[in-house]
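Quick one: structure for this chain?
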Amino acid sequence: MTKKDDQRVLTELEEFASEVGQFMEYWGFKKVHGQIWCHIYLSQTPLDAAELMRRLRISKALVSISLKELLDFAVIEEAGKSERGTRLYRAREDLGATILDTLRRRERKMMARIRTSHSLLERLDPQELQDHGVERQKVALLGMLIRLVEQSLDQMIKRQSGSVFDLLGMLSQSLAPRPLPNTPPQQTDILD
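Got it. Here's what it folds into:
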């Protein structure tokens, strides 16, 4: 047994990777994607499938499929071969580019599907909407929201590079609350 085989995975690292996995799951990935990515990203050296199996206590099949999917999403990349001849993996260093690539590949397509289905609903006769208890004004409001999200997404995607902090700053600005067109500002009660 080598010294590397004898090493335990830090409990805190396991917990953090699990939380990252849950966060990634929230965004439509699998939890294991986030866990594997976290271990690869935080590792001082590239990791192979066997090391990921050991750390995460998961099957070879699950690691293999997950690595392929992470490679397809370009969030990790191959980093040569180990002394044993197994493929090694490292995370892409440019987190901003990784996030932008994912937005281009997934979220843009998802928003296009949302816009298409919304436009079908929006084209229905107002009487038909009313007969089915659907409020036309709220359909229109959701249309404005969809366009706002698409515009924000397009602005982020057009960026070629920049740090992840630049990207997060841009995202927070685009998601900052703004008054909707043709709506009066909200009044607040002031307590004396």
